[in-house]
Design brief:
The chain is about 70% helix and about 0% strand. The protein has a two-stranded antiparallel ribbon. Helix 1 packs across helix 11 and helix 4 (about 85-110) packs across helix 13 (about 335-350). It is globular. It has one domain (about 1-395). The longest helix has about 30 residues, at about 300-330. The chain is mainly alpha-helical and about 400 residues long. It is built from 15 helices and 2 strands.
Length: about 400
């Protein structure tokens, strides 16, 4: 049964992607959603034996470990300055806003949510980075599968409400900017009319194309060699990261592994040739789908349902509270509402969602800056999530 489970963990994501390619109307659905659903259905069929639990944990942990370097290989730290000072300041304010809102939520719910510091770490990681950070922090913080799946499921719901609010108020807020030009926003290497997720923007040689590649391109004839090299480089990073973790006490090895993989992957981006492994990000996303099926199969449905109302309230405070704080701080620092909007949505929902604001903002530079700050969030999310969880655990 364990061998069948391993096969299903890999085959189910392939089936989901095939259906989305076969039926274009399904292409707009985040494949992680059906992956989790499939995993939850598998949880009813798979036996709850120690061996099966070991297989599930091994697959989920292995996929996260490989996905971290693969997705971070697409980051080009040298391009971060293109976002401009205004956008970088706004990103910093977004991070501060998220930390404040999550801390307030922790104060309210720490007495009724047993793992509130862990939840806080997950929220800071996902709302400064994205799902890859959430998956990595699940391992780093030792979050149980049921709690992780609950947090991610609620995140999809709360984020949808957040997007609707941003779109509803965004036009009015952006209109208040008038014709005042940002003093700090630098020119970004973009052109209008592209097809990537940046709302009709095309990076000349930046990170956008790496993230918007179709899954089918991973094994295309012109990409096979790059995909293989990306996977080999990721395996090397994982091996070194695991080796470094052996230097610390057993209780700290998982978190040291995750942070080591993050640091090593970012350092590897300075090596000539790593930036040309253009299929690495999409390959990392595929491993996240495998992880989603595996971790979903480990969930306890009863515990998920019981914890959901409290977590919904906690995450609503975190997301909507951070937006309100960010808007206030943006006004204090004299940052344009348009810049606040794109950096907020890129942090909370990840870079691809910035394109949803393009019809409202109609400024390629600001949209490009939002995409860039979202990529920065991927890079720092793991560090911030771990620090948040540790800090709140120490404070009690």
């Amino acid at each position: 049964m364990e061998y069948l489970a391993i096969v299903l963990f890999f085959v189910v994501p392939l089936g989901i992607l095939w259906f989305q390619r076969r039926f274009p109307r399904l292409a707009s659905v985040n494949p992680i959603i059906p992956a989790y659903v499939a995993g939850l259905l598998l949880s009813f069929a798979l036996p709850g034996t120690p061996l099966m639990a070991s297989v599930q944990d091994g697959v989920s942990s292995g996929m996260v470990a490989l996905s971290i370097p693969l997705m971070l290989f697409a980051v080009d730290i040298r391009r971060w300055a293109l976002a401009g000072r205004e956008a970088l300041v706004s990103l910093l304010l977004a991070v501060v806003s998220i930390i404040i809102a999550v801390s307030v939520g922790h104060v309210f719910f720490r007495s009724v949510l047993e793992h509130s510091p862990q939840i806080a770490g997950l929220l800071v990681g996902v709302y400064t980075g994205g799902t890859p950070n959430l998956a990595a922090l699940r391992l780093a913080l030792g979050v149980e599968s049921s709690l992780y799946v609950t947090v991610h499921t609620v995140d999809l719901l709360v984020s949808a409400v957040y997007i609707l609010i941003v779109l509803a108020v965004g036009r009015r807020l952006v209109a208040r900017d008038g014709t005042r030009q940002g003093r700090f926003l630098f020119s970004a290497a973009v052109s209008v009319g592209g097809t990537n997720s940046g709302g009709g923007l095309n990076y000349s040689d930046g990170d956008g194309g790496k993230m918007d590649m179709e899954f089918s391109r991973i094994l295309a004839p012109d990409m096979r060699r790059r995909s293989f090299l990306a996977l080999a480089a990721a395996v090397l990073v994982v091996a070194v990261g695991l080796g470094l973790s052996m230097l610390v006490p057993v209780g700290h090895r998982t978190v040291v592994t995750i942070l080591s993989l993050t640091t090593l992957a970012l350092a590897a981006t300075f090596i000539p040739g790593v930036g040309r492994l253009t299929s690495s990000f999409k390959l990392g996303e595929f491993f996240i789908l495998i992880f989603s099926v595996a971790v979903g199969s480990m969930a306890d449905i009863g515990r998920m349902v019981a914890a959901s109302p409290l977590i919904i309230a906690y995450m609503t405070i975190a997301v909507l509270g951070s937006l309100a704080i960010h808007l206030v701080l943006g006004r204090l620092f004299r940052i344009r509402n348009a810049t606040v909007m794109v950096t907020s949505i890129s942090a909370v929902c990840s870079p691809p969602f910035v394109g949803m604001l393009a019809p409202i903002i109609r400024d390629p530079q600001i949209i490009a800056a939002g995409i860039t700050t979202g990529i920065i969030g991927y890079a720092v999310g793991n560090y911030l999530g771990v620090l948040m969880a540790w800090g709140l655990s120490l404070l009690g």
